[in-house]
Write a structure and sequence with these properties.
TIM Barrel; Rossmann fold; FAD/NAD(P)-binding domain; 8-stranded parallel beta barrel; 25 helices; globular
Length: about 725
């Protein structure tokens, strides 16, 4: 979970911001260069076995610990087991579950797995016995939230090394006394004993991401004056004593993985050099492997989002690996196993931890090993179904793997009767319905009025940092073509088309159409639609006003702002040669020369961006110099003004606080959202025996909702 939607920005030193910019730009350049290489080179060490202590793992792929939202009482249930069983079948070498709380004080979320009671052991054992059938090893991650554990979930007061509140929770924690620290350590030990009794092959201790152990390690949260605070040597003691106590209790041969923050990305937080020293001490204490990750949930440095170049943070694991003699696991934004291969082959880590990619496609390792590249659902780091669902108190799902969390419920079986199925609309919902219907053995015909498939989702991957969304369209189109779905493009369907085809089933996925607000002058020649800008059908002036500050408005603003901006590879070259500095790189790569203003009638821009994503989009809007004016009503658009000097004839007039204000624009972009397209479906009501309506043609909704509806309809027919 990433609780970064706090409107109050945290203060980060300039050197941290500049460090991130350097990393960002260098990674962008590296990514571009990598794409020019052969992604499908001969596999090397990725599928070779490796040992963590005494434990041999069949390949170098580990599934990272994550909250699934499947339980509320700390126990493991069938849904939980079914989820991981499918990933074990898919070929991953190591599964880490969790984080699991060792005591109630450390419970950070409602659906976290419990390790504080012996009554959980039978459920743990049932889980490990099931997963072990597929030669997949399993570890349990022990996570004590410290000050990150709100009393809302734990029902107890949070604790920490010092009484400093979490940025987002704002609940002052109790500073642990030395006797209390000993009890917490005992809790870690007792939890590990339960992990071992539960049949787990290893334990992972979470010492990163701003949780309790990390709070002791970092000067940002540890202000103690005793043996657990002050110098780095003292701040390590808590973690060191946990490792030593666990090893003494369960045996030195029982594998212990330590999740380490490579860098905290907060003021006074750990830097990589300090993390290296921590790793050296903990290796001597008995750690058998390090799982290295970046940042805290409190940090304003993006970590888990699509906008982050892939492999941006692998340099952290590489640095740790260069200084220890035990295996190191690299993580974060490695969503393609070709990238994982590159990391392993170049000795940047010994294993790669992937989480969301295995949510999107549980068979990722198996498919990649068999060279079934077209059949892989690539995680796009959209966070819509995973992080955003959890933050909304829902269970984990996925944008385009509908079976997540419903593995037993949603099984695609051959239909008892073959039917002729007509799908109207080639957006994501229509394609998913066609895919599932074809898998069930139906004769499927798909009609799309445009000359390409993808619907409105095509526009979502045009703005900068959103390019990976195209993977959704590519996957769905590839699958329906492989399944021999009959596809007709540039075909507008009417009742005659339906009568001629004589389908048994009609699935209407006709989507939506752009909303055109009732504004005087809306048909002026300088007024264009957002879709036309995305399709590069119109020229854009220098002074741009965007009417609508929702999702589409922000995306078109960023797209327009980026026109003429410096490319990341150029910025990387200039940074490397000290021609420009980090701040200049931000400026030059974030925007071109256009002046852009968003006008939004609501009190804030951002629309339906997910909780985990919105704050980054807003930061991008800020960096691009995009002006936003909210709480307004647009009254008039004109083409009379030829320059900013002609104030009385300004192109756009809007009302704010009962005052009329004029703003010059040589281009006005309409991005006011969409409305349902129900013209055809209204004609079909009562005339088709088996008629299904999905997606925007019912009401405007997200791509996730449309795809999920398409899957379920395909399963019904």
């Amino acid at each position: 979970m990433n609780g970064n939607d706090d409107p109050t920005p945290s203060v980060i030193p300039n050197f941290i911001g500049n460090l991130f910019i350097h990393i960002f730009l260098i990674s962008c350049y590296h990514y571009v260069a990598y794409q020019l290489q052969n992604n499908h080179k001969k596999m090397s060490k990725l599928f070779a076995p490796i040992k963590i202590g005494s434990l041999e793992i069949k390949n170098r792929l580990a599934m990272s610990a994550m909250d699934l939202g499947f339980t509320s009482d700390g126990s493991i249930n069938k849904r939980f087991i079914d989820f991981y069983l499918e990933r074990a079948r898919g070929g991953v070498g190591l599964i880490v579950i969790g984080g699991c709380y060792p005591e109630m004080t450390g419970k950070v979320w409602k659906s976290i797995i419990g390790l504080d009671k012996d009554e959980y052991i039978p459920g743990l054992k049932k889980f490990t016995d099931t997963v072990h059938k597929y030669d997949t090893k399993v570890a349990a991650q022990i996570l004590h939230g410290g000050r990150s554990a709100s009393s809302f979930f734990s029902k107890t007061h949070p604790v920490s090394p010092s009484s400093l509140s979490h940025v987002n929770i704002k609940q002052k924690p109790h500073a642990l006394t030395i006797p209390e620290i000993k009890k917490v350590i005992d809790g870690y030990v007792a939890a590990t004993v339960r992990v071992k009794k539960g049949g787990f092959d290893a334990v992972e201790i979470h010492g990163g991401m701003g949780y309790l152990i990390n709070q002791f390690l970092s000067k940002a949260t540890n202000k103690r004056k005793d043996r657990y605070g002050g110098s780095l040597k003292n701040r390590i003691n808590f973690a060191k004593e946990i490792v030593e106590a666990i090893k003494e209790k369960v045996g030195k041969r029982y594998p212990l993985i330590f999740r380490l923050s490579g860098a905290d990305f907060v003021e006074d937080g750990l830097k990589i050099d300090e993390s290296v020293e921590i790793a050296k001490v903990l290796e001597k204490a008995g750690v058998d492997a390090f799982n290295v990750s970046p940042g805290w949930h409190e940090s304003r440095t993006p970590i888990m989002l699509m906008a982050i170049p892939r492999m941006s943070y692998i340099f952290l694991s590489e640095k740790i690996k260069d200084n220890v003699n035990v295996p190191v696991i690299g993580s974060v934004r490695i969503n393609d196993l070709a990238l994982a291969e590159e990391v392993i082959d170049n000795n940047r880590s010994d294993l790669v931890s992937i989480g969301r990619p295995l949510i999107a496609d549980p068979e990722l390792p198996k498919k990649y090993k068999k060279r079934q590249f077209d059949d892989i659902r690539k995680c796009i780091a959209c966070n819509q179904g995973c992080f955003d669902s959890l933050l909304g108190f829902k269970s984990v799902s996925c944008l385009y793997n509908v079976r997540v969390g419903k593995e037993s419920e949603f099984k695609i079986r051959k239909a008892k009767k073959k039917k002729k199925v007509m799908v109207i609309g080639g957006g994501p919902g229509g394609m998913e319905a066609a895919r599932v219907a074809a898998l069930r053995g139906h004769d499927v015909h798909l009609f799309e009025k445009a000359d390409v498939l993808g619907g409105q989702l095509r526009y979502a991957y045009i703005p900068p940092g959103r390019e990976e969304i195209e993977n959704v369209v590519t996957f769905l189109e590839t699958q329906i073509r492989k399944l021999k779905v009959k596809i007709e493009l540039c075909k507008k369907v009417d009742t005659k088309t339906i009568n001629d085809l004589k389908p048994d089933v009609v699935i209407a996925a006709t989507g939506g159409s752009p909303l055109i607000p009732q504004i005087s002058g809306i048909k002026e020649k300088n007024v264009v639609m957002a879709e036309d800008v995305f399709d590069n059908k119109v020229k854009i002036g220098q002074e741009v006003v965007i009417i609508g500050g929702g999702t589409i408005g922000c995306e078109i603003a960023l797209h327009t702002a980026k026109m003429g901006a410096m490319g990341p590879e150029v910025a990387c070259f200039l940074l490397k040669n000290r021609v420009i500095n980090g701040d200049e790189a931000i400026e030059l790569t974030s925007k071109g020369k256009r002046n852009i203003t968003i006008l939004e009638m609501k009190n804030k821009i951002g629309g339906k961006f997910g909780i985990s994503t919105r704050w980054v989009i807003m930061k991008q809007v800020q960096d691009a110099g995009i002006n936003s004016i909210t709480g307004i009503k647009v009254k008039n658009i004109s083409t009379k003004a030829k320059s900013k000097k002609e104030k009385d004839n300004a192109c756009v007039t809007y009302e704010k606080d009962n005052k009329d204000i004029k703003i010059f624009a040589d281009t006005v972009i309409i991005a006011a959202g969409y409305k349902s397209n129900q013209v055809l479906t209204n004609k079909l009501n009562g005339k088709i025996d088996e008629l299904y309506k999905i997606g925007d043609c019912v009401e405007v909704r997200t791509a996730l909702e449309a795809i999920h509806e398409g899957f379920e309809v395909g399963l019904k027919i």
